[in-house]
Amino acid sequence: MPLPPAPSRRAALLAPEAFAITAPARAPQPPVSAPIAQEPARAPSAARARRKPQRAEPALAAAAAHAAPPPPTQVETRARASGTRQRQGANAASSAGPSVAPPIPSGARSKKPAAQGPAKLFVLDTNVLLHDPTSLFRFEEHDIFLPMIVLEELDSHKKGMTEVARNGRQASRTLDALAAAAQGADMAQGLRLDSTGQRAAGGHLFFQTAALDYSLPISFPPGKADNQILGVVQALRTLHTPREVVLVSKDINMRVKARALGLAAEDYQNDKTLEDGDLLYAGVLALPPDFWAKSGKNMESWQSGAQVYYRIGGPVVAQLMINQFVFFEAPGEPSLFARVSEIREKTAVLRTLKDYGSTRHAVWGVTTRNREQNYAMNLLMDPEIDFVTLTGTAGTGKTLLALAAGLTQVLDERRYTEIIMTRATVSVGEDIGFLPGTEEEKMGPWMGALDDNLEFLAKGDGGNAGEWGRAATNELIRSRIKIKSMSFMRGRTFLNKYVIIDEAQNLTPKQMKTLITRAGPGTKIICMGNLAQIDTPYLTEGSSGLTYAVDRFKGWPHGGHITLARGERSRLADFASEVL
């Protein structure tokens, strides 16, 4: 195959005639088969001629490197370094006819715009905005479409003082801010979601500005709002093919109907802290069986007061977190029950625990009955721990431990001024209506667990309650316990209080943040709940406020978490929790 002549001087461009030398050698092609016979006779050879030089360029460059002093590869490199000469070379190559390869393959030009912009178009249901008003900014680079019926439903939910009404008003204000930031822009082209400072959102927000043509089966009544949203999703999928259009809804039945129509539907996942409840941080780690064999030789130990400290190293340090409990139990070897108090690069310091299972260390007459309860009591009685989360099934002793520790630190040690107890007022069955009386009287029916545990603690059934416990009456204990409603928590500040939040699994992450941020200097907050008993609509184990708090506070030096594993209420309650 003949080669083009070498340039006459350094960095010179080849004349267009030089390219024509190689064209006749590649132009002749064998006869075209029948399926391509309908195309022009020169189309196959031209197409092959356009593709072939792209594959042969490395071979041509290598051959030219031996033929001429200035290799074509150097010439091409210098020509690309000069913008003017590069454009001239491209024009010269394009004038040589269809047999010359284009500088950039057409496929590369077509793929580049496709890689830009969002890959999906999400259609949001109303319940997503009412559940999380900031959901508009949680879809990264993807676009969002709001049907007009969603705005109508949003408008109908904005009145009232409930959490749903507040979220509806916040979502409406967010939409108004986006529209105000894009004044003068065409709404049909979409509003930039990052125009209000939300840099994580790179897509656009589209509103339904015209009627869409869709046809649903007769079994889907057209007057229902859910069916209108499904019709919009169906029409958008037809209009934007092959782009993926996805419906996002918290309503399970809505997603089932969408899938029955062949439409893509997903749950709103951005509010979930964990995909699986089994991945929740337990606060306890079992040390490996060879712990003493590997770590015993290089371990440092010392004693300070009643506690013994161990400095350990090895691969187990990477799995530890501050205030995490570790234990080692093996036959014939010394047991270890400790808490991680310090982590420095490749070493960690473990501190032994106080045994609250002994009657000598009973807290308001209560002794712990298992390992996890002892861990929990160590957190509840530690003045350096400001935030404690306790999870576990019914009967594991969450409320009893928290109350006993609170009474001891309020009445005996005077560490806190009073106990404040609150809970989410979400009923298991039908609501019984309005309750008469003051705030505490209205909260009385919700605080049955408090009454049951106070009766046990005040009567002294838990053992010797100490000097204060023997002298204190039920009224004295009641005078140090305040029952508050969550509805009036906003704007308050608790100073030197021992706050117990019961049934915290029914709180949303936003409500949990509102309660925890009420803590002032010297305040300790205890959140308790059973993630298997969530009664709030649209909340799951992964999106509960209790799960959110456990995941966010793990590893904080002044916070701790324990999952209570074994029930201690009665053999009947333990068996029922397992088999029912």
State the secondary-structure class. alpha/beta
Shape field: globular
Rounded to the nearest angstrom, the distance between the terminal CA atoms is 84 Å
Number of strands: 18
Strand content: 15-25%
Please give the radius of gyration in angstroms. Answer: 36 Å
Largest sheet, described in full?
A: 6 strands, mixed
Quote the average pLDDT.
Answer: 77
Uncertain spans: 22-115, 427-432
- The level of helicity is 25-40%
Strand order of the largest sheet: 3-4-2-1-5-6
Tally of helical runs: 21
Strand-helix topology:
Elements: H1 16-19, H2 23-26, H3 43-67, H4 72-81, H5 83-94, H6 106-115, E1 120-124, H7 126-131, E2 143-146, H8 148-156, H9 163-181, E3 191-192, E4 204-207, H10 225-239, E5 244-248, H11 252-260, E6 264-266, E7 284-286, H12 291-295, E8 300-304, E9 307-313, E10 325-328, E11 336-344, E12 347-352, H13 371-380, E13 387-392, H14 398-412, E14 418-423, H15 439-443, H16 448-459, H17 466-471, H18 474-479, E15 481-483, E16 497-502, H19 509-516, E17 524-529, H20 545-553, E18 559-564, H21 571-579
Parallel strand pairs: 1-2, 1-5, 2-4, 5-6, 7-10, 13-17, 13-18, 14-15, 14-16, 16-17
Antiparallel strand pairs: 3-4, 8-9, 9-12, 10-11, 11-12
Helix pairs in contact: 4-5, 13-14, 14-16, 19-20
